[in-house]
Specification:
eight-stranded antiparallel sheet, alpha+beta, Nuclear Transport Factor 2, Chain: A
């Protein structure tokens, strides 16, 4: 019985960690201003709260962007869609060498702590899809893939 109660409590707490859609009026002004300062041309902004962070999905010149901001409006992490032609050559080479049988499905440039990373979703038949993150020099990164 004790195990069942603990499992029920654990599952109810897991819902607290889920993201929650927010209206602009529900956002702290520091968070709103932080996004406007960093990305003044952002359009179609949608907000979610993930734990202590605020996630903004938006467009700039028809390119998808996502930013994580803390409660003070500081950008913690930012990503944007890019084309394969925008990859640094070391990353492109690593993909050609190590994932030649895969197709690139989604490609994003990620900025975190002053570092630029590249995350790629690779597709292959029969559920062999992979999500990888690379440093600009083409080496695999320890940063977890950001969905």
């Amino acid at each position: 019985m004790k195990t069942i109660v603990m499992m029920m409590l654990a599952s109810s707490y897991s819902f607290l960690g889920c993201s929650q859609n927010l209206a602009v009026g529900e956002l702290p002004s520091l968070v709103q201003n932080g996004l406007k300062t960093q990305f003044p041309t952002a359009t179609d902004v949608e907000w979610e709260k993930n734990g202590n962070l605020f996630e903004a999905e938006f467009d700039i010149n028809q390119t998808d962007h996502t930013a994580l901001l803390d409660g003070t409006g500081k950008i913690v992490m930012h990503k944007q869609d890019i084309e394969a032609t925008q990859l640094p050559e070391p990353v492109a080479k690593a993909l050609r060498t190590n994932f030649s049988g895969y197709q690139i499905d989604d490609l994003e440039q990620v900025e975190k702590n002053g570092q630029t990373l590249y995350q790629v979703e690779l597709e292959k038949n029969f559920g062999l899809d992979q999500k990888k993150v690379f440093s600009a020099d083409g080496t695999p990164s320890t940063l977890e893939y950001w969905d």
